[in-house]
Amino acid sequence: MQISTIRKSITTLALLLVFSASHAQKVIKVEKPGELSKQITPSEKFSITDLTVSGSINGADILCLREMAGRDIEGKPTEGKLSTLDLSMAKIVANGGNYYQVKRGMSTKYYSSAYDDEVSAYMFYQCQALITLKLPTNTKSIEQHAFSGCTSLTECIIPQSVATMRENAFKDCSRLASIALPNSLKEISKCAFAGCKSLTSVTFPSQLEKIGAQAFENCTSLATLSEFPQSLLDIEDKAFYNTAVTAYTVAEDNDYYYASNGVLYDADKISIQLYPAGSSATSFEIPGSVAEIDEYAFAYAQNLKNISLPEGLTNVGKYAFEHAGIEQLTSLASNLSIGESTFSDCAELQTVDFKGAIGGIGNYAFKNNKKLSVVQFTGSAIPEFGQYVFTPKTVKLKVYVEKDLIDKFKDAFTTKKVALGKMYEILDITTSGIAKQSVYELNIDKVHFDVCGRKISKHDKGLHIIQSSDGRVVKRMVK
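The line above is the sequence of Leucine-rich repeat domain-containing protein; the predicted structure tokens follow.
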């Protein structure tokens, strides 16, 4: 009697498990666009975890999938548990009504399936139940915010037919660990993968032409990149801002970029475009040919402790060293221009020694450098200061200048609000204990040539080849 009861219980449990599994997984062929929901019962809708769909689907079907994956038409959470969605055998077609709407100000913006074979804007926006997704094999484009905010998404299979990926397409997919980009893709748009904190590596398409601004911003685990292809024309600002990239490499036949020891330059080696923030190096010697450092180039290079700006350098772009780990900064450059917030938030920076003349220093150039205690100006002229270049708070800032310039520096600091607050003093440079640039260094004869070898004035605009009497040759861009 007991054995019979046990057998019945086991049989019942097995049937329940089979029933549960059949509810959790489902394969559907949509015979007519807009009728996906007719093939899913109310009890299945929020219990299916694994769904395979074939046939043509439109906006109404996308809304059904959104609800199953955790979001309704207004973006409000649902009880949907759909984590695995296979659309590889489906075809997205236009029309079918709205699948997402959002109120902006006094009006409401509506989103629907706009074109055939397009993952339209906001299609799976914030569908936080989704973990794995296969797109239709004939997909041509992925529009803005199509998957942004899908915080559980770990894998998305993108077909080779995709040629366009719009802004914010995968933004803040914080668990996306890898992505295979199709070779047909020519542009990775602005913020396409920004905030994908689990992304560790990226292989670039062979036909890629452009990487948009902030494309991989705040991908803090991104350490490995494939070689930039020959076709790449443009990398926009902050494309790899706050990443862990250890080295940049470029195809030898690329006409726009050059890489050496993991550092990215323009093709003429005049400008540093990107320094790998994930490099373990504590120091870096800027080549003498470099005339410019691009905006954000060294941002978040937190292992970099010491940097010396060479004589031929003329311009350091805004935010170039933001959040870098530098402790000491030395500049040998003459007539150097330092942009806005160039060295802001360098929390470990303690001393700055300008051995050459400084043309200008932009607003907030040394903002929030909490340990900065000494700045030395060796030049015989006062730089063109912006506002709040220095923001001393916890440590008193000592600014050392030539004795006969003390009053002029004090006046500039007061009238132009060079420093925030009064936690600073301007002192005679001879009392600093820091060695000045030698007379020999200050009196080296220099001859300027253009790229054709013709002697030119040091004030002429363009690229200068500068030959010093000590045998050194540097390149400098004069604007």
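Note on the example: The first helix runs from residue 2 to 24. The two ends are 98 Å apart (CA to CA).
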